[in-house]
Design brief:
61 residues
């Protein structure tokens, strides 16, 4: 799992913003988000953000 992507999702970045920041395509970002959801057993971006805060991947912003 890429912590960078999890952090960016938790910070509320869109797929387009994440792709632009990391120089990857939109389809690659979507694939990574899907992989993160599957690996962590989560249903959506909100649950990814909650997981990130609970597991100290990202602190209080």
């Amino acid at each position: 799992m890429r912590r960078t992507r999890v952090r960016e999702i938790a910070r509320g970045r869109t797929n387009v913003e994440i792709g632009a920041e990391l120089f990857i395509s939109l389809s690659t970002v979507k694939s990574h988000v899907s992989t993160i959801q599957t690996k962590l057993g989560l249903r959506n971006r909100t649950e990814i953000a909650v997981w990130a805060y609970e597991n100290r991947v990202i602190g209080n912003a």
